[in-house]
TrEMBL record:
Catalytic activity: (1S,2R)-1-C-(indol-3-yl)glycerol 3-phosphate + L-serine = D-glyceraldehyde 3-phosphate + L-tryptophan + H2O
Record GO terms (molecular function): tryptophan synthase activity
Function as written in the Swiss-Prot or TrEMBL entry: The alpha subunit is responsible for the aldol cleavage of indoleglycerol phosphate to indole and glyceraldehyde 3-phosphate.
Gene Ontology CC annotation, any one: cytosol
Protein name: Tryptophan synthase alpha chain
NCBIfam families, per database record: trpA
Encoding gene, per UniProt annotation: trpA
Species this chain originates from: Deinococcus metalli
Family affiliation: Belongs to the TrpA family.
Subunit structure: Tetramer of two alpha and two beta chains.
């Protein structure tokens, strides 16, 4: 099945398969919906999607505990500009009309419950969302959201960290249907100075003992060099804060995305 005709879980897995066949890690850029504003977000997303294997769109949220200052500020700006959860899904529907690339939504559980899980899943599926990344949902505590996503053909992704025990990794990996998101460092999102990826090899070795889906690494990847380091080990490379910083600095997001995508090639 090709990525063009697939949707949901199948479209995500097809994207990872294509990247693997081309001897590279899948490139997964992140952008907060409605940033830097609702008018300019589509152009920013288009620039990232031009190089992405999978696109991650964040729903702005007022209390994003897993995000660092850069993504927090982007959420604050987007919320102040009127980007709600429902508006985020409308923006994604507009992107889907132009792109076949898999689109996954990164969201905390509160925005889902604010809309209502069943209504949220219905709207997300209608918008063309292929999967959900759920950073604050323990897969052993609430299966309703994951089950509802599956009913609508959408994948779910949960996170592990260097501090995750083997038992925890086994549980989380078993619950993922899209890809497993491995956090490269203990802490919050954000580009970091120097290399903070020393714990990645051991974490990925553990993850691969249990994962039946691709394993992507995020947090701390900021440029082609750090992407290249991660790409030698992981199936996917997630980059977010670097693009928000680029927008704030007036840089060309498309050029940065092209450079990082090139860095995702394996040796």
């Amino acid at each position: 099945m090709t990525a063009v005709h697939a949707r949901g879980v199948a479209r995500i897995h097809a994207a990872f398969d294509r990247a693997r066949d081309e001897n590279r890690a899948a490139f997964i850029p992140f952008m907060t919906a409605g940033f830097p504003n609702q008018q300019d977000f589509p152009a920013v997303a288009d620039a990232l999607l031009a190089h992405a294997d999978v696109m991650e769109v964040g729903i702005p949220y007022s209390d994003p505990l897993g995000d660092g200052p850069t993504v927090q500020r982007a959420s604050e700006v987007a919320l102040a500009g009127g980007t709600s959860t429902r508006r985020t899904l409308q923006l994604i529907a507009d992107l889907r009309a132009r792109h076949d690339t898999p689109i996954v939504v990164m969201t905390y559980v509160n925005p889902i419950y604010a809309v209502g899980p069943r209504e949220f899943m219905r709207l997300a599926a209608e918008a063309g969302v292929d999967g959900l990344i759920l950073p604050d949902l323990p897969p052993d505590q609430d299966l309703e959201i994951a089950d509802l996503a599956a009913e609508h053909g959408m994948a779910v992704t949960f996170l592990i960290a260097p501090t995750s025990t083997p038992e925890r990794v086994e549980l989380v990996a078993g619950a993922c249907t899209g890809f497993l998101y491995a956090v490269s460092v203990t802490g919050v999102t954000g580009a970091r100075e120097g290399s903070a990826l020393g714990e990645v090899p051991a974490m990925l070795a553990l993850a691969r003992q249990y994962a039946r889906v691709p394993v992507a690494v995020g947090f701390g990847v900021k440029d082609a060099a750090t992407a290249r380091t991660v790409a030698q080990l992981a199936d996917g490379v997630v980059v977010g804060s670097a693009f928000i910083n680029a927008i704030q600095g007036g840089q060309d997001v498309g050029a940065l995305a092209a450079s990082i995508a090139q860095g995702c090639r394996k040796d």
